[in-house]
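Known limitations

Files may contain more than one protein. Parsers should not assume a single record per file. Below, a two-record file is shown to illustrate correct handling: read the sequence, read the token line, then continue until end of file.
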Amino acid sequence: MRTGPLALTLGDPAGIGPEIAVKAWRTLRGTGPAFFVVGDRRALASAPGASDVDVRVIHTPDEAMAAFADVLPVLDLPLQAPVVAGQPTPAAAPAIIRWIETAVGLALSGTVSGVVTAPIAKAPLYEAGFRFPGHTEFLGELTANAPFDGARGPVMMLTASDLRVTLVTVHEPIAKVPAALSVERIVHAGLVTAQALRRDFGVEAPRLAVAGLNPHAGERGSIGREEVEIVEPAVRALREAGVDARGPYPADTLFPAEVRATYDAALCMYHDQALIPVKMLDFWGGVNVSLGLPIVRTSPDHGTAFDIAGRGIARADSLVAAIRLAAEIAARRR
């Protein structure tokens, strides 16, 4: 991996991706990290707040590095037809997918230092035949054949302030989570997390706090058997593998500041168990990181916000944080 700009995919052009890309550039143009947008120039140039921005087409990442302070660089891969803000359409799906594939290809070739993805909406993609649950799984498929030293993900991590959480299950209906858990799945997520903490976050001796599934972490089996039969054996296996993992802990006592100081990441069993504390701690600045991939990938911890798209009121805090974190991880990998 060489020093280079980040590739920022535009996400769903009917959402707030174009607007927050412009706002992120305004915030970072003087200090960096440098990035260029992979997407549709017309959608970007017509975003709220872009009327006085020089949205310039580039052909190589080097051009983006040289011009970033003065222009918002874009690798122009046009949509087949204009998209209206707030009105997602399956017709945009081929372009959205192409933007992601292009950015990942640039990262795998080493010509960019990492990928940051603006939000996509799953429903329009599904209507167009997209077969992955989301960004993370798609990135795992795109990078599956690339060399990687360590436990391979992807595993989803969310960061906010001094909190890092990783997920064993992600977009599972809550009724299906217990059946989706297994010792092997928890161990895998724990190994990927521990290795990523060392490689990407500079934590020499990672400490993992493992959450239980049930209230009170099952009360020794009286409020559910998953802790006894699945989570506890997984924690033992992680420790036998050399990971400082502890638990299972009741999730409702795992996130106060005093407790957060005792671990480097919390390993959570399902989506809301992890995301509620992240969003409570820093609703605007949370970042999604894909662990265990041969490329660096981050994204803002929010969705497409179609309800406010085109109105000029979207906040770019989370995207700015994602860009900064991607650059930090890339520097550590170098």
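...continuing to the second record:
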Amino acid sequence: MSDKRTDHVILNVNVLDVGIVHDAWRSSELHPLSFVDVDYFTRIGRIAERGLLDAYFLADGPALREDPRHKPGRALEPTSILAAVGAATENLGLIGTLSTTFNDPWELAYRVQSLDHLSGGRVAWNVVTTYSPEAAGNFGLAELPDRDVRYRRAEEFVTVVNDLWRSVIDERPTVHHGEFFDVEAVLPVPRSAQGYPLLVQAGGSPDGRALAGRAAHAVFSAEMSLGAGIEHYRHVKSVAAAAGRNRSHIRVLPGLITVLGSTEEQARRRHRESTALSPDGFSLRRLAGTLGVDPDELNHDAPLPVSVVDGPPDPARFRGSLGFREAVVRLAVDERLTVGQLLDVLAGGFGHRRVVGTPEQVADTIEHWFLAGAADGFNLMPDKFPDGLEDFVDQVIPILQERGLFRREYEAPTLRGRWGIPLPERQFAAS
């Protein structure tokens, strides 16, 4: 089958607190509690809708995210934010990250379907498993289940949620008896304008990619080079085809970190100034955590240790993101970087491609990846909000429109319609 895409690039904005840069919260444009202020989040939503972006994407982590000595660690629950953003916008999609490790499938299906109905069919659920050890204690566990158990649970969780959403269309109870869940129920929520929410998957591990190919409508990938992007794109489409799906019904959306300036030097200066605020040793500790090693094992003037490059850690014991780790290691090897050089390249973001430059240079990257078959679009990750997003909307979007790569108006009211994914049909005749 063809990999035919939408007629234009898909662009979502990934709202990571107040920006991808660790110390973006120090920006003079923000007040100290912006990251828990509904007016801040709705302002970002209005900017995104003014730019005709596809969706507003929120991460989640059911634990204290940051060391409060260096960055405020408070955060609001994502569906609560998305409800407010949905009320403040008319067309902008709403994508919320919710874990299969620490949620109940019926409650999640009920909550997300309700939001989809109220928003007019603009919602997607970003499916993740939780790998943060700190989260386990918040749910009464001494430690996290191992990776294999988490992914088996995730697979079954997604099946149950999909069946519950289908029960809204088919008007039949869901009956499921599995390893982790026993459910006999029907959701009391009406179908939405798009039937039920879309599924997004953000894992980069082999299990995560397999789950994405079988069930997701979009993949939030972590690729840092064009070659890796093309390889991942083809892999996901192939898994979808092997599962009997239309290859064009799954969108591959890498993360793209943007640092904009009217000149390349202005962009570089902005980047230097923002990353210089990070605490001493922060980047090295973050790199070590991504790789699953102790910081003392990394020599600033040497390449990554052979033990890191030669093979991934034991998946059952490694607590980080295998996708991020793979992307970083591949970049270091392909570019023959020392640890110090790798830290310079990664500064401000780990696991995603970053462009520090002019609006034309950012547009060039988007166009290149799209036309080369490495992406159907991107999850944008501005260095700082709100100006990082405002600059993208005001300066990059017009360039993409002039090149025929992006819409000039919203062509469909639902997220499913804009991504070219058919409405779900009734599978059983009405009784």
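Parsers that stop after the first record will miss the second one. For reference, the second record is described as follows. The longest helix spans residues 147-170.
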